[in-house]
Amino acid sequence: MISARCWLVAVVALDVAAVGVPRSAAAQTPEMTLARAVAALEATETERGVELLREAIATAPRATPSALRGNAEVRLAVASWSLGFFDSATVHFQAAVSADPFVTLDPEQFNPDLRAVFHAVRRATLVLGVRAPPDTALAPRTEPWPVSVAVPRPGQVRFRLARTGPASRDTLLATTAVDSTATVALRLPVGDSVTRAAGSYRLAVEYSEPGGRALATTLALELSEQIADSLPHELPPADSLYRLEVRWGAPSRASLARGIGLGVGAATIPLLLANSALRGVGGRALTVGATVSAAGVVGYFLGRPRQPLPENVAYNRALRSAWEARNRTLAAANERRRGAVLLRVRVASPQ
Amino acid sequence: MISRALTLALLAAAGLASRPLAAQRVEIAGLGIVAGPRSTVLDQGAREVIGGVWIGAAVEVKYNRFLLTASGLRGTLDPIENTPFQSDAGEEGIRVGFALRSRLALEASYLARAFSSTAGYQRWDILGLGAAVSVPLGDSALSAHARASYLPVATASGRSSPSFAMAAEVGVSVAPRRAPLLMRLTYRFERFDFPGEPAQFDRITLEVGYRVRR
User: Fold this and answer.
1) B108/A contact by beta carbon, under 8 A
2) Per-residue model confidence as pLDDT tens digits over B39-91
3) Which residues of chain A neighbour B187 with C-beta distances below 8 Å?
4) Domain assignment of residue B180, yes or no
5) Residue B158 DSSP code
6) Mutation for A interface: B151, B187, B197, B202, most A CBs within 10 A
7) A304 touches chain B (CB under 8 A)
8) Confidence (pLDDT) at B159
9) CATH number among 1.20.120.450, 3.20.70.20, 3.40.1170.60, 1.25.40.10, domain A4-124
């Protein structure tokens, strides 16, 4: 039986070897390498997948999103676990949590033993994660600013906001108990004027667990005022979304019969109605009779009755009404936003 | 007998008129008319026939169920058979209709027709009561109509009243949906049974007009 230490040495050796990855792979982005690794793992080419995951991590620049790095480490941990490299899996889980404290394991996808290891690692890894919208605009005094936190163990999290610079006083925005991850709606203290509130700030997030361990991190914020833009009206629904409201029916034989019947009637009027002493065939009556009959034939071929489709008419009406209602809502919102001043919150950089 | 039938018809019309109307709608049409009339009279056993071309105009006003038509025609009638006389002739008429249903209407009409020639002047006054039916011919732009009238009053100067008089008419109309035009081709036949001198008058008429709907 190979000891865990030997496996760790082997994995480290593989890591070292991975530094010497051919330069041809450098042209690929970490995202692409990760995608290839996932494909290899799904194709049960575990060794190849591990190799690519290491390559993705090793070649990832510092600016690589922490979520990607954490994802790669988690997959590496799972692959190591499946190969029996349990210590190596633990190491990669630690790296994953350090890279992205918000990383989780899908309970539907992974077995309980692996999840237990992951949770143990997560509790043991003393790291505090904070996520905030990088750039957003809020309605001052009414709209909160959402900030997510990830903590290793249940504990208290405090949010303090202070202007940068000497002699600045901080303000406690919120204190909340967090078990693992949580999103806290912070109300930024704008006061009476957004203009006066504009400036550089520092958001301190402090975590403390009952056992006494504590962590803290800060975000640098830029607050500024922003005039609200009007919302664009929604385009009307595409023609392809509408349904046909009528269906062309079969030609009407009744109208054909009416036309021919009236035509024959017109032609025979002089014969049927004239005094017997004056009776005779009328060329003009024949002309009109033929014209009426011809019109009946034309109407038979060209005039097909339009049969309305009430369900489609109602559907189209509902489609139009919904669009109009949405645009009315937008118009009302624009009326409210006209001249409104928003508070723009931009995360300058984590500190 | 006639007055009783007229009374019944008017009562029926009044009863139907009390139905609620779908919508208030007015349609006015102005029409130019070219007609080819022909008058045939049996005079002492010989057929006298005159015919020619008349030009005229008409105005039709349709308001909900009511239809009012006024028309006038003028022209000449040339001798065709057994008569040497050419006539200047014309007629003016008015017709009032009431639609019982969308396709069926009761009508009353008055027509004054005059003939003037070297042989003399003759005026006809004709009052008619009848019904008209209009039917679509497949396409909504095409329709045909038929009209039958009893002519209870038909007087011609210099003649005694006819024992029986009636008129019948059949025509076809084209009213394009996307153009305010109206075209109509009609054949009308009138029969007058004067004692010992039956007469008939028929004509083919082409009407082209402009219609306005509000």
Assistant:
1) no
2) 999 888 888 999 999 999 999 999 989 999 999 999 999 999 888 888 999 99
3) 266, 269, 282, 284-285, 287-289
4) yes
5) T
6) B187
7) yes
8) 85
9) 1.25.40.10
The verdict on ipTM greater than 0.85 is no
- Tokens 């084209």 identify what position? B174
CATH number attached to the domain at A129-226+343-350? 2.60.40.1940
Can you tell me which residue has the tokens 């954490």?
A70
* pTM assigned to the model: 0.51
pLDDT of residue A168 exceeding 80, the answer is: no
User: The tokens of A44 are what?
Assistant: 């049960």
Is B137 in the A-facing interface, judged by CB distances under 8 Å? yes
Segment 182-241 of chain A within 8 Å of chain B by CB: none
pLDDT digits (tens, 9 = 90+) for B10-43: 444 444 444 444 556 899 999 999 999 999 998 8
**How would you write A74-115 as a 3-class SS string?**
HHHHHHHHHCCCHHHHHHHHHHHHHHCCCCCCCCCCCCHHHH
Residues of chain B neighbouring A302 (CB-CB closer than 8 A): 138-139
Residue-wise DSSP of A135-146:
EEEE-TTTS-EE
Q: Considering only residues 49 to 78 of chain B, which have any Cβ-Cβ distance to chain A shorter than 8 Å?
A: none
Q: Domain of B184?
A: 25-213
Chain B residue with CA closest to A279: the answer is B200
Q: What is the pLDDT of residues A172-222, one digit of tens each?
A: 999 999 999 999 999 888 777 777 788 899 999 999 988 888 999 999 999
User: Chain B: nearest CA to A144, how far in angstroms?
Assistant: 57
User: CA–CA separation, A173 vs A184, rounded Å?
Assistant: 10
Measured distance CA(B138)–CA(A252) in Å, rounded: 6
CB atoms within 10 A of CB A66: 16
Non-local (6+) Cβ contacts of A53 within 8 A are A34, A37, A72, A75, A76, A79
Domain count across chain B: 1
